[in-house]
Design a protein that fits this description.
The chain has 226 residues and is mostly beta strands. The chain has a single domain, classed as Beta Barrel (Porin), CATH 2.40.160. Helix content is 6%, strand content 68%. Strands 1-2-3-4-5-6-7-8-9-10-11 form an 11-stranded mixed barrel. The longest helix is centred in the first third of the chain and has 14 residues, at 2-15. It is globular and about 50 Å long. 12% of the residues are buried. InterPro entries: DUF2490. It comes from Sphingomonas crocodyli.
Length: 226
């Protein structure tokens, strides 16, 4: 009887699929973004973002993203942009990704002392080791509130951004939930309208094969506005 039970348990263990793995890493993301008006309602932004391993060592990813836009109203702006992403890979050729994207920025309004805004972005992704075009939708919501009596002073800041892949590709994208980013930190005023944002960013990524990657990120962003 005992032998039969042991054999049954062994068979069950062999037939049970391997559980999805969760990998956790530490990183540092540094973002510099310049933005402003080119002429009247014609606007732009341009950003460069090196993403470093947790020991501030080799670059894990380098992103460059310019865009040009039109201000439809004081609260609504639309953009067309391009992004270039370099991903170094040890022992293999680097993976390069080119993206075209359309974006809508909306200043939702202020409720009490909390200012809300959102960003909706649709991406078309082209990867160097694949032939398919990946479509991805990103939705970003941000909330900030002054830490003191002055609205122009330091502010508490939080935001979330969800990513949804709209199709499967031959380079690994899978339709459905792609990733979620959640940030908590502070916004510090600099000269003019420029600001510095510093805080903790949590990134949960749904990887190929059902595995999950969680990045714990020290995030530093400089906004140069004019």
């Amino acid at each position: 009887m005992f032998r039969k039970s042991l054999l049954a348990l062994s068979a069950l263990a062999v037939s049970t699929p391997t559980l999805a793995a969760t990998r956790q890493e530490e990183q540092v993301w540094i973002n510099f973004t310049a933005m402003g008006s080119l002429k009247g309602d014609l606007v732009y932004f341009a950003e460069i973002q090196p993403r470093l391993n947790g020991d501030a060592g080799p670059i894990d990813q380098l992103l460059m993203r310019p865009a040009i836009g039109w201000k439809l109203s004081p609260s609504l702006t639309v953009y067309q942009g391009y992004a270039h992403v370099e991903v170094p890979r040890e022992g293999r050729a680097d993976r390069n990704e080119e993206r075209s994207f359309q974006q809508v920025n909306w200043s939702i309004g202020t409720f009490g002392k909390v200012e809300l805004s959102s960003r909706t972005r649709l991406e078309q992704r082209f990867v160097s080791d694949g032939r398919d075009t990946g479509w991805r939708l990103r939705q970003f919501v941000r909330a900030e509130t002054p830490l003191g009596a002055r609205k122009s002073g330091p502010a508490a800041l939080g935001w979330m951004e969800g990513f949804v892949a709209l199709n499967d590709t031959d380079w690994g994208a899978r339709k459905g939930f792609d990733q979620l980013r959640s940030f908590a930190g502070v916004e510090l005023p600099l000269a003019g309208k420029s600001t510095l944002e510093v805080g903790y960013l949590n990134q949960v990524i749904n990887q190929t094969g059902g595995d999950t990657r969680i990045n714990h990120i020290a995030s530093i962003t400089l906004w140069a506005r004019h």
